[in-house]
Amino acid sequence: GTEEADRAYYRLESTRVEGALRLGASPLRRLQVLAGYSGMSPGVGKHASPLLGNVFPDGTVPFGGTATQYFISGVAGDFAVLDDAISPSLGVHGRAELKHAAGLRGADPDYNQWLLEGRAYLPVFAKRRVLAFRAAYAGVDPTEDGAVLPFYRLIQSEGQLRFLGYSTQRFRDRQLILAHVEYRWAISHQVSALAIYQLGAVAPEREVFSLRAAKTSWGGGLRMGMREGSALRFVVGKGDEGLSAQLALRSDF
Asked: What is the C-alpha to C-alpha distance for residues 112 and 169, in angstroms, rounded to an integer?
């Protein structure tokens, strides 16, 4: 519920080391066992204003000046049945990722993190015209009742979970949902023009989500399939707060 006028900047130093045992060569059909380390340390920014401490009083941002370190373990899987692995026009794709973060220090609260995602592709009278659907549900949940999580480890609208018409990391909370539909029209080999509509929201728990509070975006762009499960995308979106552009070099949608 933070207003756009409360935008604030901070510096975040992040160290991540992760290894995976992969069963299955294709990124569209594989199971992964994950293990790694994640360390994050928030600090005072220098090259933008206003700074976090100038907008939110001391003590109001959980772990606003405190570093955390975690051992991460989990599993992830993808399973897809598609007519084309680069530019699909028919089929479904399911994804799940479950992780547990164990604090390496007593003050670091343990938590679970998840991502559930489904995709579907449907041709519109021809393979070169496709409706592509995507729905994602992500979240973090402390293992102890009442535990407060660091604000920088909450689920954020960034990367594949970015809300199209808003700046990256604009929204964050314990849970996030995203519904995305786009119309793809092939204009050359592996290149398609896009028309997009999106609905996204964050909330502290599932029961609090409401359609009225969701953020809507619409826009368009270009997609170029590169290889199996990988594409280059450039999109421009419009939301309540203006225009936002994004270039994704290794998108998997």
From this structure: 20
